[in-house]
Write the structure tokens for this entry.
Amino acid sequence: MTDIIRTFRLERMPKTITTPEGVTYYRTRYIGETTEGAQQHGIEPGWTTYEYWIRPSDDSRRLYAISPTQFWLE
């Protein structure tokens, strides 16, 4: 059996993501993996996630992305 790697490569992820509401988030160095909690956003567990913050040094609002167009706010 082959493991399926669900990832959008870091070099293809933008340094910023702007939400449809016009709010820009900045990519951090933090990389993780989606868990079952991501299913509430329609994303399966096991994807590589990239963490974005509202400002480079302010994590009071976070965005998690698996691709430049698939993300959710926390």
The chain has a mean pLDDT of 90.
